[in-house]
């Protein structure tokens, strides 16, 4: 009582606390899980318990990102559930009690596998597989039994294989390893590959194929049929699990049925007993049942049970039936218990009594009206009613032997035949309804998928969820995102919620809540029964949040699809939001760059006007002072005046170079066709004085006409030629300019025979103000090559150098061109 009060559950005789069960399962999408899930769902509903299903995948999942869903198991504790049921599928290879210890002291019930210190509900795999093998050996006389194993290491797979080996030994059949091939649960192709190994590689003969489960059996069936090998005429085939489609394939599959629906209901009873501090059995085991159908070569049990035994009594029909009332009703209930059958216990007795009354002519049409009522109830929930054909066979088997009068026989046979037709009509109606619902569900899911995948805004996404999900039978939905400051996330924010009453107001920023509560408090009634499924939202390795839906077994395949869609949409919305943020940052940087360029333009204006004039005045007067008073003052004064003149001149040069650097982008001219040979001629003319002083020779090969800024191209070549002449060696300076056609433009080279440089400085020399020599060795401001780099980049090219100290240097640059005359013009050697 104190624990429930701490959880805030309502108390008192008039309003008792409602127990809440947590159910761990890999996924609701798998048909194999459906009977168990339905049993748990029905039992929780009957008991008035709240059910929360955690569909978090297998804790040992090895597929890419599959284990990301396991995070939701970490949110489960005594604050959100009163007891836990764990299905074996989430553990697969690991049966480690330590994984579950942090749920203590919550009651824990495991299903389909045994775990120490927990309550377990298991199935007897051994007897079912033994019966299956014995049937093939004893009834059909088969000795060569091929076996397709399940996933290696999985307990059920290992158990079924071990029973196969033991049973062969018990019947004195030698074990042949060549008849055993490896398959993988859930992968049909692995069984098909196994058949190919048996027939093509090992070339072995066999009478029957025993598959470790029904999926593998279907895979083997497809490969056998593709080869023209008929089942069961040429080879018998059996499976295991009796999945819902096993009776529908051709031929119908002989298999072993696990009572999953009963196990699910039993698991709920056990966990609720533990919640009430009762002491249920710690170990409960259910026998498996062999289901004989056509794939082994037999007729189905339903057909066999429809036959009649010879009359054994002379009692009247009514008295004979009434004498066996309890036995007949018990047999009917046993028939109905073999499948997922949400029947009312009284229906068997009501149908029997109605038949007797009609036989006695005390209530005409009573039997058909009662049967019709039962069928209508089952049609509402779209239950498979064909099992009731076996109920008719059971009633016929007991009734006909008691009839001696032909007219009475005719009347009863007609009555039972009408019952069969009624069942068949309802079955067809249910199948049509299911098909229509499935088609509509697929259509709506496709439309929802299309809308969600093109919605990259969370607000729009939540509106789509509210508008479209109810069409899929999702009457309540809670969508929350993690706050990612911790792992697992301690806090989440509910961004959207609706239930049967409509949209729930979560405010503009959502509702912040502790993730372990799953849903903010007060949004779920604590005193009412409900069933929810918690689906983890993640994209690859990134955890996103939770989607919680109301759950219904008829919709079992929808939830996984919606999880994937929502995860992708939320991730996409996040990426778009990040992209918008980046675009905003880029816009701000662009605006900043525009401002910076404007400031640079202003600086250029100031430098070219306001700074140049006073500098020219300073330089002029210093030079005048030098001419008038040189030799008239002491030697120090002459030296000082010389330093001042040199500084003023260098300042002017620096300002001019900075102006040239800044104007590459801000004062560039439109591109136009430029004859590079003519540009080189102009550069030689401009550099005539320094070429003459150094005795330099500048030559060029065949150069193209390209689309470029003519003044900047002149400045580029001029800077590179001047640079080559400046850093000459003792040899006569030689500079050669060449061009080579490239797929997207031209590559130029300016080669010299100067002093060269160490390649460790190859990047540094193109940076502004970077010098490798002192101004005493070589003049300059360290801006010339930086200007070259900016010019080349403006022309969508790049510039680099290849050199070796003492062996000259070659500067390369590319100019990407579009249009213009790309033909070469004569060189000047």
Query: Would you identify the regions where 5 or more consecutive residues have pLDDT less than 50?
Result: 1-16, 819-826
Radius of gyration over C-alpha positions, nearest whole angstrom: 44 Å
Largest sheet: 12 strands, mixed
From the N-terminal CA to the C-terminal CA, the straight-line distance is: 104 Å
Tell me the fraction of residues in β-strands, as a range. Answer: 15-25%
Helix percent band: 40-55%
* Average pLDDT score: 83
Structural class: alpha/beta
Shape: elongated
Quaternary arrangement of the chains shown?
single chain
Task: Supply the number of helical segments.
Answer: 22
Total strand segments: 26
Secondary structure blueprint with pairings:
Layout: H1 2-6, E1 20-25, H2 34-47, E2 50-55, E3 83-87, H3 97-100, E4 108-111, E5 119-124, H4 125-139, E6 145-149, H5 155-170, E7 180-182, H6 188-201, E8 208-211, H7 214-226, E9 236-238, E10 255-257, H8 260-275, E11 283-287, E12 289-291, H9 301-305, H10 317-323, H11 325-336, H12 346-359, H13 366-380, H14 387-399, H15 406-453, H16 458-468, E13 477-483, E14 491-499, E15 502-503, E16 511-514, E17 531-539, E18 542-550, H17 558-629, H18 635-666, E19 672-675, H19 676-686, H20 688-694, E20 697-700, E21 703-708, H21 710-726, E22 734-742, E23 745-752, H22 784-794, E24 799-803, E25 809-816, E26 824-825
Parallel strand pairs: 1-2, 1-3, 2-17, 3-4, 4-5, 5-11, 6-7, 6-8, 8-9, 20-22
Antiparallel strand pairs: 10-12, 13-14, 13-18, 14-15, 14-16, 17-18, 19-21, 21-26, 22-23, 23-25, 24-25
């Amino acid at each position: 009582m104190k624990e429930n009060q701490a959880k805030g559950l309502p108390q008192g005789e008039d309003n008792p606390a409602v127990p809440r069960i947590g159910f761990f399962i890999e996924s609701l999408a798998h048909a194999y899980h459906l009977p168990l899930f339905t049993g748990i769902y029905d039992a929780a509903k009957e008991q008035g318990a709240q059910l929360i299903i955690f569909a978090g995948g297998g804790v040992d999942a090895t597929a890419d990102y599959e284990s990301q869903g396991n995070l939701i198991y970490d949110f489960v504790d005594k604050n959100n559930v009163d007891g836990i049921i764990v299905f074996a599928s989430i553990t697969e290879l690991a049966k480690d009690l330590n994984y579950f210890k942090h749920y203590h002291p919550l009651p824990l019930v495991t299903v389909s596998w045994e775990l120490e210190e927990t309550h377990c509900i298991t199935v007897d795999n051994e007897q079912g597989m033994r019966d299956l093998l014995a049937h093939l050996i004893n009834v059909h006389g088969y000795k060569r039994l091929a076996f397709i194993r399940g996933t290696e290491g999985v307990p059920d797979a290992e158990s079924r294989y071990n029973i196969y080996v033991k049973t062969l030994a018990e019947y004195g059949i030698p074990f042949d390893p060549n008849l055993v091939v490896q398959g993988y649960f859930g992968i049909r192709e692995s069984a098909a590959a196994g058949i190919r190994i048996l027939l093509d590689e090992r070339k072995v003969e066999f009478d029957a194929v025993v598959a470790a489960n029904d999926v593998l059996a279907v895979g083997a069936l497809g490969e056998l049929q593709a080869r023209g090998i008929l089942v069961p005429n040429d080879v018998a085939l059996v499976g295991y699990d009796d999945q819902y489609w096993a009776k529908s394939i051709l031929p119908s599959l002989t298999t072993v049925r696990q009572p999953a629906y009963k196990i699910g209901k039993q698991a709920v009873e056990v966990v609720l007993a533990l919640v009430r501090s009762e002491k249920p059995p710690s170990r409960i085991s259910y026998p498996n049942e062999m289901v004989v159908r056509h794939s082994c070569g037999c007729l189905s049990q339903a057909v066999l049970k429809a036959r009649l035994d010879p009359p054994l009594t002379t009692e009247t029909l009514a008295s004979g039936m009434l004498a066996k009332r309890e036995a007949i009703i018990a047999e009917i209930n046993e028939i109905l218990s073999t499948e997922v059958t949400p029947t009312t216990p009284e229906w068997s007795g009501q149908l029997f009594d109605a038949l007797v009354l009609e036989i006695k002519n005390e209530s005409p049409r009573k039997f058909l009206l009662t049967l019709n009522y039962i069928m209508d109830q089952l049609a509402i929930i779209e239950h498979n009613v064909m099992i009731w054909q076996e109920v008719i066979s059971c009633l016929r088997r007991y009734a006909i032997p008691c009839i001696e009068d032909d007219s009475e026989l005719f009347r009863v046979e007609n009555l039972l035949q009408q019952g069969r037709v009624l069942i068949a009509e309802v079955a067809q109606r249910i199948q049509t309804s299911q098909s229509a619902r499935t088609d509509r569900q697929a259509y709506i899911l496709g439309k929802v998928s299309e809308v969600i995948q093109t919605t990259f805004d969370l607000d729009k996404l939540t509106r789509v969820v509210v508008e479209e999900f109810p069409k899929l039978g999702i009457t309540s939905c809670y969508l929350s995102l993690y706050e990612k400051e911790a792992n697992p996330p301690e806090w989440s924010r509910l961004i959207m919620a609706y239930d049967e009453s409509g949209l729930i107001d979560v405010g503009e920023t959502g509702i912040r809540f502790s993730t372990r509560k799953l849903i903010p408090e007060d949004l779920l009634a604590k005193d009412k029964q409900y069933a929810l499924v918690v689906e983890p939202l993640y994209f690859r390795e990134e955890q996103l949040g939770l989607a919680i839906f109301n759950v219904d077994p008829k919709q079992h395949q929808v939830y996984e699809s919606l999880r994937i869609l929502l995860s992708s949409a939320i991730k996409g919305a996040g990426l778009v939001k990040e992209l918008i943020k980046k675009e905003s940052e880029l816009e701000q940087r662009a605006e900043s760059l525009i401002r910076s360029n404007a400031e640079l333009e202003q600086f250029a204006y100031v430098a070219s006007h306001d700074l140049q004039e006073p500098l020219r005045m300073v330089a002029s007067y210093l030079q005048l002072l030098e001419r008038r008073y040189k030799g008239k003052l002491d030697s120090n004064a002459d030296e000082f005046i010389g330093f001042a003149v040199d500084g003023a001149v260098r300042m002017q040069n620096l300002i001019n170079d900075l102006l040239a650097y800044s104007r590459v982008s801000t004062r560039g001219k439109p591109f136009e066709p430029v004859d590079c040979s003519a540009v080189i001629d102009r550069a030689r003319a401009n550099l005539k004085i320094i070429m003459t002083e150094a005795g330099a020779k500048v030559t060029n090969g065949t150069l193209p006409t390209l689309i470029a800024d003519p003044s900047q191209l002149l400045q580029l070549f001029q800077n590179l030629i001047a640079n080559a002449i400046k850093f000459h060696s003792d040899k006569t300076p030689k500079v050669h300019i060449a061009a080579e056609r490239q797929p997207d433009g031209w590559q130029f080279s300016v080669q010299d025979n100067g002093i060269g440089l160490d390649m460790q400085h190859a990047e540094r020399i193109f940076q502004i103000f970077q010098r490798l020599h002192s101004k005493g060795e070589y003049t300059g401001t360290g801006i010339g090559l930086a200007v070259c780099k900016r010019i080349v980049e403006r022309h969508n090219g790049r510039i680099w150098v290849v050199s070796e100290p003492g062996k000259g240097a070659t500067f390369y640059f590319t100019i990407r061109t579009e249009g213009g005359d790309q033909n070469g013009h004569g060189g000047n050697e």
